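Exercise 7 asks you to align residues with tokens for two separate proteins.
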Amino acid sequence: MDIDEILINIRPGETRIALLEQTRLCELEIVRNDGKSVVGNVYLGRVEKVLRGLAAAFVDIGLERSGFLALAEARPPDWRRPSEGDGAEIRDRISDYLNEGAAVLVQVLRDPSGDKGAKLTTRITLPGRHLVYVPGLAEIKISRRIEDDDTRARLSAFIDSEAQKGEGFILRTAAAAAADEDLAGEIGDLRAAWAVIGENRNASKPPACLHEDLDPLLRVLRDGAGREIKRVAVDEAKVLAVIREYCQESLPEMTAALERHDGADDLFEAAGVEEQIERALSSVVALPSGGSIIIEETAALTAIDVNTGGAGNRGSSEETALATNLEAAAESARQIRLRNLGGTLIIDFVPMRYRGNGAAVLAELRRAVAGDPRVPHVIGFTRLGLVEMTRRKQRQSLKKALMNSCRACAGTGAVKSPVTVAIEALRRVRREAAATPAAAWSLTAAAEVIEALRGPAAAALEETEARLGRPLRLTSDGALPGEGFGIAPADAEGNGEDG
């Protein structure tokens, strides 16, 4: 996927960042006031408990719940598994690296979710525009998307000449077009950031945050550097000013793509993004040939089932299966990124008789996931004929971020959370107020939505009322479903008007 457009929608209580490829939504990041991400942050933590049976440890980093540090992430960056011939012990233990009460430098790989704390690693990485700095690992890696052999050789030789002892680097796609002096300057900046972390570590007592990654808005731009970004649209002047200042200093080539969206229509609605988000919350995705894929998220894994559907009337069964599976491979890759699905994923393709057709489907799936920044790994067909793959988890899936388990159906379905409905209702109030001036406005919704407006979404309500210039009248209605709400003009005293 080649992202060519970034849309940034700023609304009370919520910021939404949409990444598009030729108007198709590829990725959506949602940032709310009550749920700031800590992925990428570096902490000095204190080991609370070492669990030998789980080969893991719990580490206090100052958040509500302790972080989880597995054995694989506790090993030093340059750790290599000993071979039998080395005469060394093949199996190491978590207690070889951590002791209860000890201070440990960690970085957050995945945000806390539900009753799980943040996932941690001791292998620190500091990302920049062109490369990622990996202290403690003397290794150079180059993005697979840089395919030209001469470019890869040039970058490898330059970084090898710049690298100091114990330093590692991962060259991003943007490095292909970077001048040597730009790469050298960025290496210096990242070294300086690492030195500051070291200084903060010496001056701090655990738990303490030593380094914060960029704000999500700026991080998306940084990580998108080097792509053919034609448009970055923002619907809030103050946020656009912050982004413009950052781009002028760090991403000058992206400055020309910045623009303010001030049309009458909502930015996401004008671009068709709202409709695409709604479709991404459905478990069924139609394929061009008439087939479909069904996506089901569970606690253990995500399963994707491929069906031929209306495609079953074309050609032989093997031809139909292959054509449907090729479409499903490409669409599955897009949906996995769009829905931010992570961990273990299983795809049940339509059965095929010929091994060569299976290889073609795997090749298409690997091609389709190649541009995903979460680096999916397609393992292959299992003995049961299912394709197994993994994708690095960082944040909640789109469905979990926007929806709650449905109490009415005992968790077998899902509805939008009260906070999501509350923020959507405030967006609607803003839009209606801009289109139809009135002395005041009233909002009627289910009791849990009204509670959300007075609780987690209170800041969003306050900002909306400031924009309106007067309080918004809130009324709960037990007859309304959890996702339903009503908006109406009101007189100056706040009494709702008919219509």
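Second protein for Exercise 7:
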Amino acid sequence: MELIDGNNVLWGLFISALLSSTLLPGGSEILLGYLVSQGEHNRWLLLGIATAGNTLGAIITLGMGILLAMGFLKNRPLTPRQLKTVTQLQRWGSPLLLLSWLPVVGDILCLMAGVLRLPVLLAISFIALGKGLRYYGVILISG
């Protein structure tokens, strides 16, 4: 089964994690858990690949927020959910991005971090840490 062996499965994990970090659905946790349970790949490698893919997806969402702030969102009212997210981000700042791994809420956090123009490197650091911790939890559970 050449298509699921070697590097192809690692690229699959990366792409699944990237898509899971955007508004598109993905099953990166399930794939990561499966790969860990198979024991054919180093757990740290799998953790790094999943975290990198998921973080890259969040960076794309963060970038979309920056672009929105530059033009599209000017003079547009925010929805109540977006307003609540903005208020929380203004209060807690980049550390709130540790929760960027949460379904739906995490996407909004990353988007609004871009809109608010939080310091990009600090934001990415907290995003990566939160996502890495989530995937580490998946690895611990998967055995």
